[in-house]
## 1
Amino acid sequence: MEKTWNNKAWLFVLPVLVLVAFSAVIPLMTVVNYSVQDSFGNNQFFWYGADWFREVLTSERFHDSLIRNLIFSGTILAIEVPLGILVALAMPKKGIWVPVCLVLMALPLLIPWNVVGTIWQVFARTDIGLLGYTVDALGINYNYVQNPIDAWVTVIVMDVWHWTSLVVLLCYAGLVSIPDAYYQAAKIDGASRWAVFRYIQLPKMGRVLLIAVLLRFMDSFMIYTEPFVVTGGGPGNSTTFLSIDLVKLAIGQFNLGEAAAMSIIYFLIILVLSWIFYTVMTNVGTDKPVKGEGE
Amino acid sequence: MARIRLDHIRHAYTPELAKANNYALREVDTAFEDGGAYALLGPSGCGKTTLLNIISGLLTPSEGHVRFDDKDVTMLSPEARNIAQVFQFPVIYDTMTVRENLAFPLKNRKVPAAEIKTRVADMLRRIGLEAKADRKARGLTADEKQKISLGRGLVRSDVNAILFDEPLTVIDPHMKWQLRSELKQLHREFQMTMVYVTHDQTEALTFADKVVVMYAGEVVQIGTPEELFERPQHTFVGYFIGSPGMNVLPCKLEGDDAIVSGNRVTIPTGHSGYHSSQKIELGIRPEFVSLVPRGQGIPIQVEKVEDIGSEKIVRARMGEHRLSAIVAEDKEIPAEADAAFAADRLNLYADSWLVERG
């Protein structure tokens, strides 16, 4: 079949191209530009090759923040995904409580990130915060300002409070879309509660669960505002995640070249890990191609 | 396998609806014999799916009892009733293979592994899915999926009944015939009580030994396809079964004759058990209406002739009433004609119910 060539088409995609160029490509290229040069002020730049990348990749400081970030993302995924599924399963499927539950669930998602940080910073203080005071009064030695473990617990609990709702809402959407006939068939087949979850609810939630895991992974890997407001990355460097470290490097030390190189590496790590998640999760449970079967 | 007895079943979906006397099932009192193939036929909203769910145990009736043989199962769960049900949309377990799908109900009932293996292999052969046994069920076509749901029911050899809720809705037309005949074949092999819900008369008439016609929450007639065609117990049955449906003509009675829009029609004698204050109607199938030359019958105006290939359907007007007639394909339709009725095929209805002949 002959294809029709019409150069007018370029005109129609032009607005999007311009928009994407200004919003993504040009800033990204600026970063690339910085990452291969060094500057000693006065707007003078010198070619630096891949040295910044080498420096970042071998720096212990980068390794430490990366590991902290991986542990953080792993922990909150391990808590938020099962917890989100459990809450979604427990939510009513019809009746007047549905909108009530949905609004309650959506509330944390509506609060700006720095406000969440401020809420928890005050909430967890041992002198005036309800949580901190209560925990302290129970005889548990708790101080997120000085104790790294307490700081970690605070940041993780805060993230779980803030973002589990997202997983809940996504899973709930997946659950309510399952037709009643599935549950009826399972009843007739004599399936146990666990079997219903394992063979009906979980497979039907698969798609939305993938989105939930991806979103939560990307967001948690880029987390900045909340821990910055609560702990400022401390005590010491114990809650300094990649983005906090990056800002320290770029704004604090004004080391633009190294910060630019780190940004690019950071970006690539998120891209690769998200791609791995996506590939693994979409391939779970699909048919392996059988030899000699052409369909 | 069991005889299913529905003992004065009534159902309303909420107590408020029951109070307002708004029953989805007004009253059903009937029995399905062991090993029979029954079809529940009726338009949408007539209560046929409600009745099916009451038999399967997914719904508990507001009033009345369900008995399997002599056992009252009204309060038992679907699992305890030991029935199988095939739904409108194929229900399969996506992540399992075809084989695992068939084994699932047996596994849940703790059947020994060796027995599961032989039974599943046997069922795969019967439903013709041996070649795809180890494929994931989700990749299959709709009719194959529907066969899996059917197989999951049949694989438990001791089921009391197998229930179908419009199982061919999502099947391609050319597969419907095949699947239906396979279903009949399986019924002959297994000799199970089968109840099949549908709103498609062709499906009902070809599948079932006995068709249960439902209308507005009630069973209006249970009969063989032949009985439904020749002696519809209710004008609704006449109208619903057959294409086009039975002509229902309001009339007045004078002695042994009926007066239809001013014309005298001789009807078979011996009708009794009606009252003249009731609404009297005459029912005649289009198949038994013939066109005769002017002056030999009741005058009609032919409005439209539909040629459906094997025969012609004549749509006409008789006074203020509409009349359909089916005539042979090769017959010329005269511009001016009268209609004649085959007298022994005339049915008399009082308040929509058939008046029996003496």
## 2
Amino acid sequence: MDLSVIDWSDIWQATWETLVMTGVSLFFTVLLGLPLGILLFVTARRQLLEQRALYVVLSFVVNVLRSVPFLILLIVMIPVTVILIGTSLGVEGAIPPLVVGTAPFFARLVENVLREVDRGVIEACQAMGIRTSRIIFGALLPEALPGLIAAVTVTAITLMSYAAMSGVIGGGGLGDLAIRFGYQRFQTEVMVITVVLLVVLVQFIQYAGDRLVLYFTRK
Amino acid sequence: MIRIENLHKTYRAADGREVQALADIDLEIAGGEVFGIIGRSGAGKSTLIRTLNLLERPSSGRVLIDGEDITRVDREALYALRRRIGMIFQHFNLLNAKTVAQNIDWPLKATGHGNAAERTARVAELLALVGLSEHGHKYPSQLSGGQKQRVGIARALANRPRLLLCDEATSALDPETTQSILRLLLDINRQLGLTIVLITHEMQVIRTICDRVAVIDGGRIVESGKVADVFLHPRHAVTRSMVAQSDALAAASLDPAHAYMSDKLRGTLVRLTYIGDVTYQPILSRIMAGARVQVTILQGEVSSIKDVPFGQLLLELEGSEEDIRAVFAELDRHRIHHEVLQ
């Protein structure tokens, strides 16, 4: 393997783009997925704001979005992305499909994390005469915080691998580099370096996430 | 203070069948008393106590608190009502992510009760009341079970309720801790004039702090009254078996079938039951001194229910029928209940 053929500035540029894609889409994924997950949880059967019809509809939409393979979603989303951003290429162009692809996944994780919160604790809050909205934001979410951080960690890693995949349709970042140089120009060195970098980034995200979970765990 | 009228609760189980959890419940609980509801698991006691703050909605019937039918109030009034009722739980149900002080502050903060300084003062006062002043900064996971329940009690009292509901509050605690929590509840009942309604499956809890008790079985109240009356003269089979289980030794001893030498028995087997000051008076000795009857004490228990002393003795009386009748007449005169077993 001859590392001298590698243009390191390209590599660092691509790494930075991957981090930006992951970071920005993670922000929007949480922004959309967290409320959606909370809504799924509270409207479910025997929960704080049981709304059978709403739950069924939300759950159906989430399932549909989750059942579309991400590669297909990338292509299907192209016209929508062009309308939203003006282009379906590069770093910006990858963000809408990333958010649409992972927000439902994250919402489901949030729903599951919230279900793990001791029912008795919520009931105790109800018995105190505390309003439901206050219970959700003052008790439910703080109690679920370690689980929510773990869910964000898992989602961040999923996003990073999806971001790499978006290289196939002209997204930026390490995936794009791997496809253009590693695959199309047979530069195995670039392929190896990209994979190594992705492995390192994923390890780091998981480590940071685990530390945060530990820090906020009071059990 | 509380009146439950003709309360029914049915719910649909997962398999679609209708399950009757409570039926024909009528109860009256006076202000300032400690009222116990005892029953086996699945008897409906948990459902019953939870209808008092509408965590469980009755299917029919009325629940009146201070004359107001709480099953008819709107959402805002229900919030206000629940703020006037404290509740503690078997598994404490503390917020793990909040410190002890924050847990106690939470009902005040979340219901917009007072400013930060007032709340801090109130939390300190409550911590002192339950003996946890040193532990305000700790998280619940760092406390023992008894300490967690003390936090639960402090939290339940934060909004100065007039009624405290205890849902199996000592069932997860060891006997010693149970006693200390019960003492605390009794202190609170006396100091603050707080009405306490508790449910339990433990006889000892009822005997230690309750004034009156209702026995629930199969969703119905089968017996109720003053604790001493219900436990010393149980009428219903369920009550009898619970009394028997609560104190195996006493139960065996007071059960004539266990009076080990029933074949050796020559005279009349009598059970005496007496409550109150008479427990500490030499009445038996006085009666027997003048009677031509031989008495053998086979078994007995002298103890107290809450602060009412009582005694229960199993005696064998030997003598003529006439002399024994004379003894019975004397017992009646001293208000000592007697029951001929054999």
